[in-house]
Design a protein that fits this description.
Elements lengths: L1 E9 L9 E10 L3 H14 L18 H13 L4 E8 L14 H13 L8 E7 L5 H15 L8 E7 L5 H17 L10 H11 L16 E6 L8
Parallel strand pairs: 1-4, 3-6, 4-5
Antiparallel strand pairs: 1-2, 2-3
Helix pairs in contact: 2-6, 3-4
């Protein structure tokens, strides 16, 4: 069965004043894509927004919290959508030499591999869409395609058919991935716990926590709906 996977990144640059990076992947059956995008557009219009309004975590505010809560509820209520998030902590403690990796970019590929590998099943077909972030995205997506395919001996690229960049404005599904990524980054950077800041964002975190989801620990690797992996650098290569 063909699947689409929509990927987004938060705090992904090496020097961006954040000690964490969040990668997220929202997957669905390819045949459901158009229906999901249309339903999300209807939620936008129901809440008085233009159907082309771009959903982004940075836009969350107390005045729009009902809209964003409805989106989160839509995700959890829709059996066609599944999310896997990876939170990489302590970026400042990375020791590339110790782990035989040339630089930050190679570590970045490793994290993307850890994000996507558990949700790619060799007897299915996947097309992966990654949000355009910067001018380095093209070579990165090509390299990531090679790494994912080689790991499952998909040398003819019959499983992972394609990886390409798209603008998040083109996909409501990718926009929801951005929303959940932002939520994870907000929580793991301590903004939720410090008792100050954006009330709307805090209410969205509470929405997720109320579902008995622990944002501090890994879920089971095969958790089908909201799958979470917390990565931390090890202190030495022999651990």
């Amino acid at each position: 069965m063909p699947y689409n996977i929509y990927c987004d990144e938060s705090c992904h640059l090496e020097h961006d004043n954040s000690d964490i990076m969040v990668l997220g992947a929202m997957s669905c059956c390819a045949s459901e894509k158009a229906k999901i995008n249309e339903e999300v557009r209807k939620i936008k219009m129901k809440n008085g927004l233009d159907s082309h309004f771009e959903i982004k975590w940075t836009k969350v505010s107390e005045s729009k919290v009902a809209f964003y809560e409805e989106l989160i509820n839509y995700f959890f209520d829709n059996p066609s959508l599944a999310y896997r998030g990876l939170v990489a902590k302590n970026k400042s403690q990375l020791d590339h030499k110790l782990f035989n990796q040339s630089d930050y970019d190679l570590w970045y590929y490793k994290m993307y591999f850890l994000l996507l590998d558990p949700i790619i099943i060799p007897n299915e077909e996947y097309r992966i869409f990654i949000d355009i972030k910067d001018t380095n995205g093209g070579p990165r997506t090509s390299k990531l395609h090679d790494v994912l395919c080689n790991n499952i001996y998909d040398f003819k690229q019959e499983v992972v058919k394609d990886i390409k960049q798209i603008n998040s404005k083109e996909s409501e599904i990718l926009q929801i991935a951005d929303l959940l990524n932002g939520l994870l980054a907000y929580y793991n950077r301590g903004f939720f716990q410090d008792g100050t800041g954006n009330i709307g964002k805090k209410l969205l975190v509470e929405n997720v926590l109320a579902r008995n989801i622990d944002l501090d620990i890994n879920t089971a690797k095969n958790e089908p709906k909201f799958n979470l992996f917390i990565w931390k650098p090890r202190r030495n290569a022999n651990v």
